[in-house]
C-alpha cells in the first residue's frame, strides 16, 4: 500500500469519524494543536485505522506521532513490513 493510499484513508477517517475539515488535513497538520484531536481521539483513530490498514504499532511509536504525515509515514513502514522507526 502506498503512502498516498494510506494518507487518503487517514483523511477519510478524520473527516468521517472526527468531523475534521478536509482542507486542514495536510501532512503538516498537528493532531492536538491543529485538528483538536485529544489523546482519547488519537487512540480511537489508531483503532479505526487498524480496521482499514492492517498494522501493529508499539506504544513508543504511537506516542511519537504528532502530525498526519507522521502517521502516514509510520503506517506505510508498518504495512510494507519495514517496521517502525
Descriptors:
mainly alpha; Non-ribosomal Peptide Synthetase Peptidyl Carrier Protein, Chain A; 56% helix; globular
What topology does this entry show?
Elements: H1 3-18, H2 39-52, H3 59-64, H4 68-79
Structure description:
The protein has 85 residues and is mostly helical. The protein has one domain: ACP-like (Non-ribosomal Peptide Synthetase Peptidyl Carrier Protein, Chain A, Orthogonal Bundle). Helices cover 56% and strands 0% of the residues. It contains four helices and no strands. The chain is globular. The protein starts with a helix and ends in a 6-residue tail after the last helix. 14% of the residues are buried. The model has no long low-confidence stretch (mean pLDDT 88).
The CATH homology group name: ACP-like
Q: What is the C-alpha radius of gyration, as a whole number of Å?
A: 12 Å
Shape: globular
- What order do the SSEs take from the amino end to the carboxyl end, as H and E? HHHH
Which residues sit in consecutive blocks of at least 5 with pLDDT less than 50?
none
Oligomer: single chain
CATH class (first level) name: Mainly Alpha
Query: Roughly how much helix do the residues carry, as a percent range?
Result: 55-70%
What name is given to the CATH topology?
Answer: Non-ribosomal Peptide Synthetase Peptidyl Carrier Protein, Chain A
The largest pleated sheet is described as:
none
